[in-house]
Amino acid sequence: KPNTKASIQPEPNPTKALTKLKRILYLQGGNCFFCGKSLGEGDASVEHLNPKSRGGTSTEDNEVVCHKSLNHVFGNMELKRKFEFVLKTKGSFRCPGT
Question: Tell me: the pLDDT tens digits for 20-30?
Fold first, then answer.
């Protein structure tokens, strides 16, 4: 008699919580917070507006999703410098590698 337990697969849990990345990306309409371009999960990263190394928290009001490449460039840059950098491009800002 075949082992039927091995062929039974668990049902996906539809109420399982989304990852933080997926949730924030969904709330941002699937776009990068900084450049506004469409962003897939594989290219996305949670960015702390005020870096944790500078006292920032892992809370909803301090986290956005952006391109991994931009998160790497920003590193632990202070919030003021990040926005200064984006705003100085006068509407032509692009994330690196996009």
Answer: 999 999 999 99
